[in-house]
Structures are given as C-alpha cells and as structure tokens.
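To: structure subgroup
Subject: Chain for Friday's discussion

All,

I'm putting the inputs and outputs inline so they're searchable in the archive.
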Amino acid sequence: MVIQTDGSTSLVQSGITYFLNPVGGGSGPELYFAGAPVTAGMWAGWAPIGAVQASGGYDVAWKNTGTGQFNIWSTDSSGHYITNLLSFASATSTALESYETTF
C-alpha cells in the first residue's frame, strides 16, 4: 500500500513493514530503527506519513494520531535511522512548516 509519493520516493507499507521505493519502479530500502525493521504499531499512535530522498539518504515524516504531533527522521541511504531532524512539533509549528515544501 502506497502511503505517500513525492517526486522521487514512495513511502510504501508492505505487510507490517515500510519501504522507501523509487517512484520510477523497483524496490528501495526498508525503514530501520536500531538495526530492526520499523513495523506498524511499533510506537503507539505514531506512523510514517511521508518520505523524500535527501542528500545521502531519506527524510521520513511521522505523525502521532493521538496528539497530532510530528517528528521528522533522517536516515542513511539504506533506510537506517540516524537522527531526528524535528521532534514533537505541533501542526502549527513554523519549524514543521519549513519542512512541508520538502514533502
């Protein structure tokens, strides 16, 4: 199931795991955290909602359905989590708004 597509990347859920696939076809890397695949429901309320290819990897946007807050991850080119670029931002956050043009 395709969750979101931008110009170069599709965030895809396959079963309970997520992939960062190229829009033109084929399969991209699986999304990982601490060496394990990220799975649906791994963190209560949180789910990835978008991904874009960035320099050296991907940026992945997350939303908490209960709180309405957002996180943005940075991953390497293999889909492994590196760091949070943005944490627990509200929908009206100017920092979040600056990322919206990317996604």
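Points worth raising on Friday:
The radius of gyration is 13 Å.
DSSP finds one helix and nine strands in the chain.

D.
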